[in-house]
Structure prediction request, 459 residues.
Amino acid sequence: MDVREYIESGIIEAYAMGMLVGADAREVERMADEHPEVRTAIRDAQSSLNSLTQAYAVNPKPEWKDDILNAAFTSKGGEPVSDNSGDSKVRKLESSEESQKSNGFNWAIAASIALLISLGINVFQYLSLNDFKSELAATNMRLAELEESQQVMVANYREANQQLAVLTDPSTANFIMKGVQGRDPEFRADVFWNAQTEMVYLNVRNLPTAPTGKQYQLWALKDGKPIDMGVFDGIDPERALQEMGRVPGAQAFAVTLEPEGGSVNPTLEEMYVYGTLNS
Amino acid sequence: MTRFSAKITEDNLIEEFKAGNKAALNYIYDAYSGALYGTIIKITGNEEQSRDLLQEAFVKIWKKAENYDPDKGALYTWMINLTRNLCIDYLRSKKFKNTQKNQSLDNHVYSLESNRRFDPQHIGLNELLKRLPDEQQQVIYYSYFQGYTQKEISEELDIPLGTVKSRAKAALEKLKKVFN
Prediction:
């Protein structure tokens, strides 16, 4: 297995998460010693996990700090942090009164410096924490935006798929409506009618946008009678196929321009396109 | 040998830490005790015990300071792994003696979501982690926070070893996106 494949296998991540033991873990360590790119991949994986643990941070109680550090210092054979007696139970503030009197001024300076350093560290930590929080918030928002746009895309994709299914369905019939006499012969709108669902779909290919206060209306013509199939404004930039009404069958379809909302009967003088079954 | 002279900065921290400068441990405590403590709570789910484990972690970190090798990984990684192992050992020694011994993984309530549900600081994190599929959260939780080996995870979840690894990989890739 070459190094690339090794890195891609997931063993690096398994190692970083601590789920490898014994020989398995040693093998990864050996590979890391031999191949710098393996080491880099491990560091990369560890860094994500480090961020995860840092995000779980809970501040320990401030009063624990002295005890915990003292315990650490004492355990290593050193003196406690008070640094002035071998007795670990003696707290630093209680013990050094004597020496404080003799050179209290030096102590005051040292304490001030220590305080300043500590304040500096606090400010630094506070700033980095704030940075982290605002970065997290920004990432959060960006994720939400992406998720939203992804939902829109998924919806579009579903719709496109449904439309494709309609078009390729053998029980779908096609009516091509073209500009009628007196209109631009280039005007065109196609109707797809599915015999099973009886659903009518409209694909407007070339019609001027309906003027304000007016809308186009689609009519199915069955046995010489017009049946209202709904209104539309023109070409829909969002979708190629507009879902119109249902009709059990028709010999032809036509589009007229009507007052907004449509009419009960078609205004024949305002007919734009007309077409019969395209067989 | 104890040195107090050098002022600790991010640049000399590792050198001073390895050399046994107490100020370095002080610096580390201020900078990282929160993350270590939070992780301990996350692993043990027990705040009382967590204080003692935090102390134990700092004792170990200080005792083993010389062993830390910067060429092998970041100081924080070294500390968090040391802390995790400590906690996982604690879980094994205690929990596995108790009734939970025979429970299968599925009976555990696993989750990467923070234990501290009402801490507003963590709400954003939980929202982010929810974007990881359950199976990926599961693999991080059991391995990184509960110390299961890949073989144990494979057996308990009844999935091949290769699948454990590929889930681990997918999970970290997703995690990287969340945090970077």
